[in-house]
Request: fold
Amino acid sequence: MQVNNPEVILKAAGELRSCSTRLEIESVFTRYDIQAVEAKVQLLRGAMGVEEIYFSDGGDMAEIDSDSYEDEISIFVEGSWRFVSA
Amino acid sequence: MKKLELNSRFKKAIKSHVNVTDKQIDMMVDFFNRAIKPEIQRNYLSHLKTAVEDLVNRHKIESIKKNLQQDPELAVVLNGLLDSKVFRPFSIILVELPLKKKSRVTFYKFGCQIHFQKNLEDKQKRILIAHELAHVALKYLPSREPITISEDLVNLFAMLSMYDKNVFYKNDAAQYLYETSEDIVSDFALLCNLPKNK
Reply:
């Protein structure tokens, strides 16, 4: 997938915003052939309109691993980010 | 959180001023335990959360107003809205989830979410929420002197907040406590003009 192509990123993020289940989210990733965990997390954060994240353990939002992906999916599906996102 | 339970003395005191049956009292206690108590439990540190939220909102509204000075027409419309106190450009949402990380605060355009692990003890959740609220407070609130926000400062703010809460529960809250359940009913009778039932 062309993760560096801004048009594709915008389109994928737009499709993600209409998702409400893990299955729907993962089918967007499959459709756009997004496999890297880091790209998936960045796209989910972008779709939610995340500006900044601080972790209680002092971790950096740039440090992304499979746990970050699981957390990002849970937060996305829970859905209350829609109340404060642009 | 402990369920609300009424003893017979309190029920008797209520019935001496309010026309209700035992069944109605039990029904209300059940409603309180099912609907209200879980909500109270979910609203961890709600005083601190509201205080930080209000301060950030006040600060954000002031900054929006400053920017509006460049557009007088829009200013007339929006100033009314901003002064209404109903308009809140910033909300803090607490969410508990089965997360891998203990807690985090995520900022968006119109507020932030504080996420924390569902399986922690209440006391631990409060510590983590205080930590995340400190991030919010220090990010938005103007300080008298310029500061570089570090995790140490965040933890310092959070510890002070928890210390303040502790002092409140230990000392200050005593003034709100009633010696007996009958005293609660008496105050209601006095302030809400409840007649004495025969």
